[in-house]
Amino acid sequence: MNMEFETTRSIQAFKDILCDRYGTSDFMWMSQNWQPRLAHQHTFKTSPQKMKLDVLKCPRLQHVIEEASEDQEVPKEQLYKTVQSILDEIGYNRRLPVIRWLGLLLLKVLKRTCNGLYVNETSINRVLSVMGDNPVIFAPSHRSYGDFILMSYICFHYKIEIPAIAAGMDFHSMWLMGHVLRDSCAFFMRRSFGSDKLYWTAFSEYVQKLVTDGEAAIEFFIEGTRSRTAKSLMPKFGFLSMTLVPFLTGRVPDITIVPINISYDRTLEEILFAYELLGVPKPKESTSGLIKALNMLNERYGKVYVDFAEPLSVRELFQLNGLQRSLPTPESPQDQHTLSANETMFCVDVAHRVVQQQQRHSVITAFNLISIILNNSVLEGSGPPLLNEVVANVSWLKSVMEVLGALIDIQDGPVNVEVAVKEAIAVHKSLVTLTPTNHLKLIKVHTTAHRVNPAKLKGHSMSEHTMGVAVPMVMIQHYLNPCLHYLIGPALVTLVMWHLDDAVEITRGDLFQNFNFLRLLFAYEFAFYAAWAEKEFDDAVKQLEMLSVVEPTKSDRLKLGNHRKLQILLLNLLQPFLEGYLTVCQLLQQTASDPCSESLLLTSTQRRVEELLGSGIILHPYALSLDMHSAALQALTALQAVNRLKRNGMVLYQAQTRKLLEVTQKLGKYKFCHDLSAVISLFISIV
């Protein structure tokens, strides 16, 4: 067997760092003599306060203040005070007593709610070996509010200086918690800067000062926000580009970026995410809300896995791209540096590499595989599966996923698989249950307590019946989605092969052309990077050949293989996305010849999906997801099937009829049909 796609990672490399905390004093552990390793050692010492003063004195910021003073006819002294208040709003503090108390609280919570915090010690030792000579950036995946506090605890455990953490202003406004987080090394950034050049310059200079003069690593989430779907989001480039400017202008010799994956057995916000995807707005972050959330501490959340990918050297990546740094000259000093087109594309490339490494370092759990099986049984209309069927299918799916390169936390052997399945069901008892006849069924999750004022909804006000069916299925999809990184390429190839009309075989060139159309259409759904299309296509075909899903022919063409079970499963994984995207395309054709706002379009598409779901034309409730509809709109805009307009400060979308019709027709031929009995099975599978 070709070993290219098999993982070289091992679950044995992960150590439960909570294990040694049982039976010992948490207070004494957090009070230990702590001499942390610095990410970037300097010959000079700095402090959070000194950094803010240095930023205030920097030539670039002074130049912007002078410009603003002339343009707005405001005294420079007043603008200096404005910048000081901006820097006070942004800047972090480092108070070790606060960090210790916060760590003590977290340790108590983890021991009460988790079955283990597993860290790949081989990978973190590799990171430690490259720290010290240049700035370091930690780039974790973002699936929960717990991500950044877990990262800080792990750094404390391994005696790494607590990173300077980029946090949103949502936390800044929380009474007490805003101060606690700031004192624990969080610095705050606004979600958007708009045309506020003064704020943008102050923030940019502050970030660059953290890079050049900071002793601790900088930590930020390259996706920009939590992923409600548990899939990777398309990376954001603004903050990353700020951190890379000191390298591009020669102020630092290199920057080390460490992609990090944090995988959760069970996500703390699972039900909130499901409602958000269906249009119910998230609760505003507040200290009182945090206190109410403590009720969740009576639940068990299984294991948490943290893996540090191979550190990326920005200098090596820059050389790999054949680029030369544009070092400052008297005519173009470093404080006025603007990214060139090549440097901008380099930032895009680095961002996608970070996301790719995050994906490759995930840990797949038993419940991730159970979710695929439950999803498959719903779409097949086979009803709730028996426990022994679930165990057998988890064992089979584990072998498939391992061929595709996934690391699965299930030991080999039927007995071990059954134990893992039962443990997963126990952890997720609020979502699934075993009946007296040993069938695995979904539990009714939606209650009237989750009703909100329809005026506050981001989408269409759906019926209680629809919500009752949709919420548990969206939650199941949340746990299925982490597997899609490994399955999406093979699934897209299989989809094209399945719809060859009367042809049995296809050339690689024609297959790639069809594959690439789907890949471009789903680019924002799965964070695809266009530059890697051919490589990912070749990998997917090789993997499918290994799994007997496709076969090469004597005429150097490809045809479907005999592994029908896996073919059907891969097609079923794509079902909600095909249904959702096709509905968006069809509705845009009917309604958006005139410019229309995104909120109105999302409301209309969600209403239409609900109608089609009720009539059995659409089978999967995940097609109701507003995030999916928004991603479809972004992709159609990139494909020039929709125009994005700005009028009177509003963003509007207008269909380009001919191109949109072409996309709709291409997509329409890929819809995978099931027997309508599947819909009935879906309804009765809810307890």
UniProtKB/TrEMBL annotation:
It is found in: Endomembrane system. It comes from the Eukaryota. SUPFAM superfamilies: Glycerol-3-phosphate (1)-acyltransferase. Its main location: membrane. It is a peripheral membrane protein. One of its GO terms (molecular function) is glycerone-phosphate O-acyltransferase activity. CDD domains: LPLAT_DHAPAT-like (cd07993). Signal peptide: none annotated. The keyword Zinc-finger does not apply. Keywords: Acyltransferase, Membrane, Transferase. Residues 136-265 form the Phospholipid/glycerol acyltransferase domain. Belongs to the GPAT/DAPAT family. This is Dihydroxyacetone phosphate acyltransferase. It comes from Cryptotermes secundus.
